[in-house]
Amino acid sequence: MSLQTSHTTDRRVRRSGSLETALHYQLLHTTEIFGLELLTIADEDGHLVATSTESPMGKLVSEVTAAFSPIITEERLSSAGGRRANERLVQELRLLGMAWDAEAISCNEFHVGGRRMFLTAVGHHVAEMREIGIYRVIFGVRRIWSGAA
Predict the structure, then answer these.
(1) Domain boundaries, the chain
(2) pLDDT of res. 11
(3) Radius of gyration of the chain from its Cα atoms, rounded to whole angstroms
(4) Which of 2, 21, 53, 145 has its CB surrounded by the most CB atoms within 10 Å?
(5) Residue 112 forms beta bridges with which residues?
(6) d(CA 56, CA 74)
(7) Residue of 1, 131, 108, 130 whose CA lies nearest to 53
(8) Which element (helix H / strand E) includes 98?
(9) CATH of 25-148, one of 3.30.450, 3.30.2130, 3.40.50, 1.10.10
(10) How far, in Å, are 39, 59, 87, 106 from residue 125 at the CA level?
(11) Is residue 9 packed enough to be buried (19+ CB in 10 Å), middle (13-18) or exposed (0-12)?
């Protein structure tokens, strides 16, 4: 099940004064470039800040993903390095009809505007996306956030 809708408009043409819309455009553009299914940004409480999808089902999946992202990141950084939260997220997503496995999900912490945030990438190309793609998203989010301040 794909969560994306097709956009043919160049990202540089799609601009917005709205922080939420600008972040959506940034995430959507990155999913298109890297062939990902979903990108979400969550705050430190696991509340969805932005998502790459516009569909109602995609937003529900994004909210679930965002809720787990701080837990997954904390668990990965703990000395145990466990993946229980990642597996629980996979189970929750399967209930919503998503067929992703734990290897398709990557959560990363970053800071913007003095806030702790979490970027989650979902898709089978996550490994290739981790370095340059995640850097690109975080750089773009910081640029957008600083312009909105």
Answers:
(1) 25-148
(2) 45
(3) 14
(4) 53
(5) 115
(6) 28
(7) 1
(8) none
(9) 3.30.450
(10) 12, 21, 18, 10
(11) exposed
**Residue 95, token pair as written in the block:** 């209930």
Residue with tokens 């109602």: 56
What is the 8-class DSSP label of residue 103? Answer: G
Q: Are 39 and 27 in contact (CB under 8 A)?
A: yes
**pLDDT for the residue 8:** 44
Closest CA to 92 of 74, 131, 66, 110: 66
Check residue 39 and give its pLDDT: 94
Chain center to CA of 99: 17
Q: What is the pLDDT of residues 85-108, one digit of tens each?
A: 889 999 999 999 999 988 888 899
